[in-house]
Specification:
Elements: E1 3-5, E2 19-23, E3 30-35, H1 39-58, H2 61-77, H3 79-90, H4 94-114, E4 122-126, E5 129-137, E6 140-144, H5 150-163, E7 167-171, H6 178-189, E8 197-199, H7 204-213, E9 219-223, H8 226-239, E10 243-246, E11 251-255, H9 261-273, E12 283-289, H10 293-305, H11 324-335, E13 341-344, E14 364-367, H12 374-377, E15 384-390, H13 393-400, E16 408-412, H14 416-425, E17 430-433, E18 453-454, H15 461-465, E19 467-475
Helix pairs in contact: 1-7, 2-4, 2-6, 3-4, 4-5, 9-10
GO molecular function: oxidoreductase activity, acting on the aldehyde or oxo group of donors, NAD or NADP as acceptor
Keywords: Oxidoreductase
Family: Belongs to the aldehyde dehydrogenase family.
């Protein structure tokens, strides 16, 4: 019998009232049933978190850090099982899912280490006054994460939030709930008290909406589309609670004639094909100087053509998209393009082939797209790269900044003066020079500007995001 994915809530006794199918995007088969949590389950989870949080916040920092380190060890122990589940749920190649599990463990280990160095400050107001600040947790943190990196996204939210003394109620994406539930079970095994980490699977319009509206949730985090992010921001504003939003992107590689074109072609290919292009920071626009355009397009097209496709568990270069719905979305953008030339790809695999039952899409390169075309402006979330040629630095900057998004950008040039100058002018939360990190490491603050959201996750900066500053002023005798 297919497994049933249940909420993991401390002391929960709620019966499963409704379920929905957990679908394998590689062939459309049903992996199992997911409990369809709603307002009642969210309320129980929030109440469990609110009950557990004060004692957890009062736990010495060293003990919280030790618990997170133990959790990192357990994620490492179960790495293969977690990767298998992640690959099956999302469709991503198994090697990429293994990397996600490794990064998930790194989040818990990193925040378990750095939280012990998170101090307040003293402020020299005068000789008769002692002023200092304290960093205090918000209380119950609500977190809603996307389906593209479910294990990583859950880990980075839970790790930073719990390290600073908060309790978490996490709503995983509808399509990919299983690794988040497994992670919560490992948190309890690691010694985090019951109620500190709670996971409620369900649909966004039901469980997600209930979480954002709950009066005891003191902080909201959301990773997903800009459209839904606006709704989360509105819910946070209604209750006057802080929110961190990591939303969409339309990240550009800006390539100048003096660049190492082989290195650029490799990074450009990897950055749009990783996770089938379903990455908010995917390098989906190639802003390339006219003098090297033909050479670079040919190099990328050659790599696209050599890409292997298949079910994620077979560990190909490129797995399926997360769902048929996502496949239809990608098809709509590619078939609706009003400019440019499809150099390679542009379709799903043949419908009479081995991959016909899955949500696959061929690596697609569209050269010479009008910058105003929706495929150049909007987030496709598939293995689709468009090229935008430029003739001078000013035009390159205009094109790179010419979308509503501002998450990541990359500059490819040997001219370091140009690199530093443009890094400051690019409208993005991260800028890479002669490399591309799709968000970079655990240590690097990550987040966007404009429609890509606000607030920062990852790095030490995330600890500040999950705490508020209290200022204490003491008059000395």
């Amino acid at each position: 019998m297919p497994e049933l994915t249940l909420p993991l809530v401390a002391g929960s006794s709620l019966a499963v009232r409704d379920t929905y199918d957990n679908v394998d995007p590689a062939d459309g088969s049903v992996l199992g049933q997911v409990a369809r949590g709603g307002a009642e389950e969210v309320d129980e989870a929030v109440r469990a978190a609110a009950q557990a949080q004060p004692a957890w916040a009062a736990t010495p920092t060293e003990q919280r850090a030790d618990a997170l380190t133990r959790l990192a060890d357990l994620v490492d122990r179960d790495r293969e099982q977690l990767a298998h589940t992640e690959s099956q749920d999302t469709g991503k190649p198994l090697s990429q899912a293994r990397a996600d599990a490794t990064v998930a463990a790194r989040y818990f280990r990193y925040y378990g280490r750095v939280v012990e160095a998170a101090y307040g400050d003293t402020i020299p107001l005068g000789p008769d006054t002692h002023v200092y600040t304290r960093r205090e947790p918000y209380g119950v943190v609500g977190s809603i994460v996307a389906w593209n990196y479910p294990l990583q996204l859950a880990s980075r939210s839970i790790a930073a939030a719990t390290a600073t003394g908060n309790a978490v109620v996490l709503k995983p994406a509808d399509e990919t709930p299983r690794t988040a539930v497994a992670l919560a079970a490992l948190a309890m095994e690691a010694g985090l008290p019951a109620g500190v980490v709670n996971v409620v699977p369900g649909l966004g319009a039901e469980a997600g909406a209930a979480l954002t509206a709950h009066p005891q949730v003191a902080h909201l985090g959301f990773v997903g589309s800009t459209q839904t992010g606006r709704q989360v921001a509105h819910a946070a504003a209604e209750r006057v609670v802080p929110a961190v939003l990591e939303l969409g992107g339309k990240s550009a590689h800006v390539v100048f004639p003096d660049a190492d074109l082989d290195a650029a072609a490799e990074a450009i290919t990897r950055s749009i094909l990783q996770n089938a292009g379903q990455t908010c920071s995917a390098g989906s626009r190639l802003v390339v100087h006219e003098d090297i355009r033909a050479e670079l397009v040919a190099a990328v097209a050659e790599r696209f053509g050599a890409t292997t496709l298949g079910p994620g568990l077979d560990d190909p270069d490129l797995g399926p998209l997360v769902s048929r719905r996502q496949q239809d979305r990608v098809r709509g953008y590619v078939e609706g393009v009003a400019s440019g030339e499809v150099v390679v790809g542009g379709t799903a695999p043949p419908q009479d082939g081995d991959l016909a039952a899955g949500a696959f899409w061929l690596p697609t390169l569209v050269d010479g797209v009008d910058p105003r075309d929706p495929i150049a402006q909007e987030e496709v979330f598939g293995p689709v790269l468009v090229t935008l040629p430029f003739e001078d630095e000013a035009q390159a900057l205009e094109l790179a900044n010419g979308t509503a998004y501002g998450l990541i950008a990359a500059l490819w040039t040997r001219d370091l003066s140009r690199a530093h100058r443009l890094a400051g002018a690019l409208e993005a939360g991260q800028v890479f020079v002669n490399t591309f990190g799709a968000g970079g490491g655990v240590e690097l603050p990550f987040g966007g500007v404009k429609a890509s959201g606000y607030g920062r996750e990852k790095g030490v900066e995330a600890l500040a995001g999950f705490t508020h500053t209290k200022t204490v002023v003491v008059r000395l005798g």
